[in-house]
Amino acid sequence: MIELLVVAAILLAVGIGIKLNFKIYHLKPFIILLLLFALTGIPDVVITSHYAYLQPEKEGNPLAAYFLSFEYGIAIAAFLWAFGWILLSEAFIRIKLYPLAYFTLFALFSGHLLGTLTWADNIQTEDIRFLSWIIALGYTVLFWAGLQLWKKAKK
User: What does the pLDDT read at residue 73?
Assistant: First the structure.
């Protein structure tokens, strides 16, 4: 069930940012971009975990392959990846470099979309139901959080 663990790691990364009162969670355009990041990032990491966990030779990204090579490494990587990019975007917002924050989050959305598509030929029909439940769980929690943040957001 490493797939559930990677989703929990992403939720933890988001939750820490919310708890630390990051500005990124108070501005509507960034909430939308964060949700797009999640929209493609969650399937990418869930599918990668499902098919390449402890089999790093199946992953093209050398850094991801390293984390896939040891137990629970991909969960650590998912947390660091999500929190690191959110933190970088937050830094851009705090120093008023909004275009860089927009670009960062949109690039992550695009990159994860391509990353997910690279697995298309490998997804087995019998795995789709399981993978769909895990992805739907992550989406449900993150989109609920997004709606709550949206209601409280300034602009």
Answer: 96
> Phi first, then psi: what are they for 92, rounded to 5°?
-60, -40
* Cα angle value 121/105/21 (rounded, 5°): 130
Q: For the residues 17-29, what does the mean pLDDT come to?
A: 96
Contact 7, 137 (CB under 8 A): yes
Question: Which candidate, 34, 24, 14, 17, places its Cα nearest to that of 109?
Answer: 34
Length of the chain counted residue by residue: 155
DSSP assigned state of 124: -
The pLDDT score that the predictor gives to residue 14 is 95
What tens digit of pLDDT does each residue of 121-155 get?
888 888 999 999 999 999 999 999 999 999 999 87
How many angstroms separate the CA atoms of 145 and 80, rounded? Answer: 20
CA 61, 83, 78, 105 torsion: positive or negative? negative
